[in-house]
Amino acid sequence: MFQGQTKEKLNNPEITSQVEGFVRPLIENWLNQNATIADAILGRIILSARARQASRDAISQVKRKTPGSRKNNLPGKLLDCRSNNAAESELFIVEGDSAGGTAASGRNSRIQAILPLRGKILNTESLNIGKAMQNQEIQDLVETLGTGIGPDFDIHKLRYERIILLMDADSDGYHISTLMLAFFFRHMPELIRQGKLYIGQPPLYRITSGSKNLYALDDLHKEEILASLPANRKVEIGRFKGLGEMNASQLKETTLDPKNRVLLKVGIENQVEADETFHQLLGKDASERYRIIMSEAALADDLDV
Amino acid sequence: MATATQSEYNASDIEVLEGLEAVRRRPSMYIGGVDNRGLHHLLWEVVDNCVDEFLAGHADTIKVVLHKDGTSLTISDNGRGIPVDKHPKFKKKSALEVILTTLHAGGKFSDKSYARSGGLHGVGSSVVNALSEELVATIHRDGFEWIQRYKRGRPTTQLKKVKPFKGHGTVIFFRPDTEIFRRTSYSHDTIRQHLEDISFIHAGLSIRFVDEPRGETHEFHQPEGIKAYLNKLTEDEKKKPVHESIFTAEKDDGKLKTEIVLRWTESTDEQFRSYVNGIRTHTGGTHLNGVRSAIVKAIKNYMEVHSIKPKGVSISAEDIREGILGIVSLFLSDQCFRGRPRKN
Hints:
The complex is a heterodimer. Chain A is α/β, with parallel strands linked by helices. Helices cover 45% and strands 13% of the residues of chain A. Among the domains of chain A are: 139 residues, 3-Layer(aba) Sandwich (Rossmann fold); 35 residues. In chain A, helix 3 links the parallel strand 1 and strand 2. Chain B is α+β, with helices and mostly antiparallel strands. Chain B has two domains: 218 residues, Heat Shock Protein 90 (2-Layer Sandwich); 113 residues, Ribosomal Protein S5, domain 2 (2-Layer Sandwich). Chain B contains eleven helices and 14 strands. In chain B, strands 1, 2, 3, 4, 5, 6, 7, 8 and 9 form a nine-stranded mixed sheet that branches. Chain B has a five-stranded mixed sheet with strand order 10-11-14-12-13, with helices on both faces. In chain B, a hairpin with a 4-residue loop joins strand 8 and strand 9. Chain B is elongated and about 75 Å long. The N terminus and C terminus of chain B are likely disordered. At the A-B interface, helix 1, helix 2 and helix 10 of A face helix 2, helix 3, strand 10, strand 11 and helix 9 of B.
C-alpha cells in the first residue's frame, strides 16, 4: 500500500519482517565467508562509534558551559531583548558589526534581539555536529538559540518565536544565507519544520517623489511603484548596496517593524530535493557545484528551501 | 462545454467528466503539486505505463523524446498497444478512450494482465490527459495504426484507423497545460537522471532519450541492474568504499521479488535508495525498515559470535549503518496490493 497518490512510501506492515527474515541470514553468511571484508566493515563501525562518542563529548561540553541562569552565559556580541517571553521575542541574525549597529538602534529592544555574525559562517554541510561545534560563530548561535543541538535539541527551549536571517541583497549576502540555511537544514531541521525560521527582505531601492519616500524590494516592485506615481512629478531613485547604507530609522521602517516588513517563511517542500541541492551547492565535490550553477541557474529559484 | 452531441450524454458520461474536472480543479491531489515536480510527474506516469509493459514481458524498449519547444514530449514503447476495441462496460467507447478519460480505469485495476505494476493503477493516463493542453495517442496493434486526439482530457476526434501497420506499441504525445502549471519547461537533467534510474532498476530494459532542444541522444541499458547502480553511485558521490566486492541478495517467490545491494563506505552518512515496482519510495517505508534492521541485527550477532568487544565505546545502530550505501528494490504482485485497504 503506497502512502498518498504520489507513492512516496511503502506501508505494507508485513513486508518488514519478510525482508528482514530474508536478508539477515544472508548478511551473516556473507560476513562469515568473507573474513577480510568483515574485518574492514567492523573496523569502520568501531571507528564511527568512537567518532560519535567524541561528538557527544563536544556537545555536552557546550551544554555544561550554560548552567542555571542562562542569560548570563549568552555570547557577548548578542544584543538580547529585554523580554523573557519567547512567544513575543524574535532574533535577527545580521551580517557584520556595522549592519548589527544599525539594526541595534532601529530595533524594538523589548522584543527584538540582534546577533551580528562576523564574516562568512562555517560551511557545515559536510561536517558532523562535533566538528561544527568547534567553530565559535556556530557555538554562539547555538547558545543564543538555547535549544542545544544534535540528540539534545529541544525546540521548547528556543528562546525566540521567530529567527530571522537579515542579509544584504548581494552575492555575499546570498552566500551567507545559503550557509545559514544549510546549517539549520542539516543540524536543526526541526526548527524549519516548526516554521520558526524566516528570511528578512530589506528593500533594494528608495524612491523619493516630492515629500514621499517609497521602498522597493526588487526591480519588478520598483517598476510597479514608478508606474503608480503621477507622470509629471520628479522622482529620485537610490539603491541600497547593503543594510549598512540604511540609517536606523529607514531600517526600522522597512525591515524591522512588524507592521511594514516582509518576511519569507522557510519551509522544506521536498526533503530529498533539498538534501541534494545543499549537497551539490555546499558539499565537497566542486565539479558537481560547477555543473549545477551552470545548468540549473534558472531552476534554483524554484526550490523553496 | 455544450456541444452538438450533448443530447447523447448519459449518466455515466457525466460521471466521467466530473472525474477529470476534479483532477483539473485539484491537480495536487493527483500529481503532488503544480510545481516543477508535478510537471515531471506527468512524464513519469506515462513512462511507468511503458515500464509495466516491460514487467509484463511484452516490451523491451522505451523512447522518450523532448521536443524542440522544451515542453511537449512523445513517449513510445514496443508493448502490446492499448486495446482499441469497444470497452465492455462503456459500449460506445474504445478501451483506449475509457483509459484516457476515466479515473481509476485501466487494465491494472481489475485484470490479470499485469502481475506487477508501478503505475497508479491506471489513474496515470487519464490524469496526464486531463492536465494536458493537447494529447495524441497513437496505437499500433492488430495490423493497423490508430490515432485519437484529446484536449484537456476530452477527445477532439474519433478514434481513427489510419493505415496498415506492422508491429505493435503505444505512442503518447502530450503538451502540459499552461493553465495548470506555472512553468512548463522540462529539465534535461531531471529526465535523464530518472530514465537512467529506471534502466538500473529494470535490468534488460532499453531506454532512449532524445533531447531535441539540445540535439542530444542518450541510451540507457543496464544488464547488471542495481549492482551496476551501486558502483555508479559510489563513484558519483565520490565515496570511498570500505570493501570492493559488494553484498547482493535476490529472491523471487512469485508474489514478492526482492533485490538488495549493500556496501559500507567511508562517508559519514547512511544512504539508501528504495524502490517498489520500480518507483522510487523517497521516504522509504516498511521494505527499507526491514533491510536497515536486518543489517544491525546481523552485525550485532556477528560481533557476539566472534566475541568482538571494542573497549570504551558502545556500538549503536547508527554506528553500524554509518557510511552504508544501499539499494533496495521490491516488486510486489497485485494480489499483495489488494490484500489490505489503503491506510490513510
